[in-house]
Specification:
50% of the residues lie in helices and 0% in strands. The protein is mainly alpha-helical. Helix 1 packs antiparallel against helix 16 and helix 14 crosses helix 16. The longest helix has 25 residues. It is globular and about 60 Å long. The C terminus is likely disordered. The structure holds magnesium ion.
Length: 479
């Protein structure tokens, strides 16, 4: 299984990824359906929302989205998706190519999307968020410095390195390229491949969910939103029922998945059920670019529209504003919970490059299992909070496969690490707190809508977008 070179300009629907060996057993087939559901859910939500991206709620009250349609800010065809799906597929392609979590390679692939349109639905990067772009620009700068240090003349040569190569030859290289205080939804929108690859080891999945954010979005709120949401996706894949996923005590009941690093208080507020408001928009639920708003909005749609992927994703979109991303975040969890079979077939039929997305799901399932076997990883955690009265639509129970226990001391986190995770440089783990704990106050608050007016800092971030209307302010500010 190979992805094409970014210079080959192969469009996603032209990539012949092929399929891994067939999964055996009912349980495996159910997991695969959930994994494909999460990726398809992300892409379907993205594509549905793209036609009205940046439209306010008031517009969508009058003109609600009900189907896959063309148009919107980017003039896409019905079924084409945006940066959310492109970046998620870049992340998936890194996991599948490197067969491990390699944040350096992830940034290389995001750069390929940014510079060469790698895994874009149009062949071009047309909608990069400002935070992501700033982080990738800094990454490019650091790569150029690295080329000088290593006497490399060709960018392809520096792109081929792994994080282990880089850290062994230049120990001070920092792959986390976010400026302080970056708390947009741009990492949460692309998260799914990490929990889909590592769901068999929940503490590892949660840790890497956070690490996947830090490369571009270093604020603790963005990192912890990904850790919490990654845990929910893991729980959904493992067959936990809806009542568990929306339980206000999910975090405390799964605390052993999170290690010693507590969630940020704003994420804790959401985990404690802040999103459980029947009158969503009227009670302050917003589909905005601030990661706390985005997480709350996606969970509101999941909770409020229990039993229907279709109703939930449309509700997420019809909140307005960052419609595609709210829906893409919703779709990651809802797709994992409901499974690919429960996403409306006519939407999946219209989805651009749906076969590639399905195949990537199959390979994440296959290679994630291989990773656990090859690295002698425990597949289970000590968590035992799965209820036997499983109301999951796929009706499988995570407790069926729990046989070994992983203690928190075995897991590498910001306080400790061990070398049983052979292909991931532990120094990255140690660096991570520096990003989230650096003096954030000034710039973090400048990114916090409760403390400032986000619209005041937008204009400098629009030049890279093909269109430059005021609708793009939301994406520019937070993405
Ligand atoms: Mg988008």
């Amino acid at each position: 299984m190979n992805f094409p070179s970014p210079h080959a300009r192969v469009l996603p629907h032209q990539i012949p990824l092929g399929k891994p060996p067939e999964s055996r057993g009912t349980e495996e087939a159910k997991q695969l359906n959930c994994i494909q559901g999460s990726l398809l859910g992300l892409a379907v939500g993205d594509a549905l929302g793209a036609s009205v991206e940046f439209r306010p709620h008031q517009y969508l009250v009058v003109h609600p989205v009900k189907k896959m349609q063309s148009g919107g800010t980017w003039g896409l065809k019905a079924g084409q998706w945006t940066d959310d799906t492109s970046m998620a597929l870049c992340l998936a392609s890194s996991l599948l190519t490197m067969k491990t979590f390699d944040p350096y390679n992830q940034m290389v692939r995001y750069k390929w999307w940014y510079k060469h349109g790698f895994l874009s639905a149009t062949g071009h990067c047309f909608d990069i968020g400002s935070t992501t772009r700033q982080s990738l620009d800094l990454f490019c700068h650091r790569q150029k410095e690295l080329m000088k240090v290593l006497s490399l003349r060709n960018e392809n040569d520096v792109d081929k390195l792994s994080i282990i190569d880089v850290k062994s030859r230049q120990p001070t290289f920092d792959v986390n390229c976010s400026k302080p205080g970056k708390a947009g939804n741009g990492a949460l929108m692309r998260l799914a491949p990490v929990p889909l690859f590592y769901f068999r080891n929940p503490p590892l999945a949660v840790e890497y969910s956070g690490a996947s954010a830090r490369v571009t979005h270093g604020d603790k709120k963005a990192v912890d939103a990904c850790r919490y949401y990654g845990a929910l996706i893991v729980a959904a894949i493992r067959g936990e029922p809806f009542e568990n996923l929306t339980n206000k005590s999910f975090y405390t009941e799964h605390k052993d998945w999170f290690g010693s690093d507590d969630l940020h208080e704003e994420v804790l507020r959401i985990a404690a059920g802040s999103y459980q408001k029947n009158d969503g928009y009227d009670k302050g639920i917003r589909g905005k670019g601030y990661v706390i708003d985005a997480l709350e909005a996606a969970l509101w749609a999941f909770w409020k529209y229990k039993g229907s992927f279709k109703d939930g994703v449309l509700a997420a979109i019809n909140l307005g504003d960052d419609t595609d991303t709210t829906a893409a975040i919703y779709g990651q969890l809802a797709g994992a919970y409901y499974g690919a079979d429960n996403i409306p077939a006519d939407w999946v039929d219209k989805l651009y490059a749906k076969e590639l997305i399905r195949d990537i799901g199959s390979w994440l399932h296959y290679e994630g299992d291989s990773f656990m076997l090859e690295n002698n990883q425990p597949k289970e955690s000590s968590h035992q909070q799965v209820h036997s009265t499983d109301k999951h639509p796929n009706n499988h129970n995570a407790s069926e496969s729990m046989s070994t226990v992983m203690t928190s001391s075995q897991f590498p986190n910001s306080d400790s690490h061990n070398t049983t995770y052979p292909t991931y440089d532990p120094s990255i783990q140690q660096q991570a707190p520096k990003q989230s704990n650096t003096p954030l106050n000034i710039s973090e608050h400048s990114n916090d809508p409760s403390l400032s007016n986000p619209s005041s800092t937008n204009s400098q971030n629009l030049h890279n977008n093909p269109k430059s209307n005021s609708d793009q302010i939301g994406k520019s500010e937070w993405g």
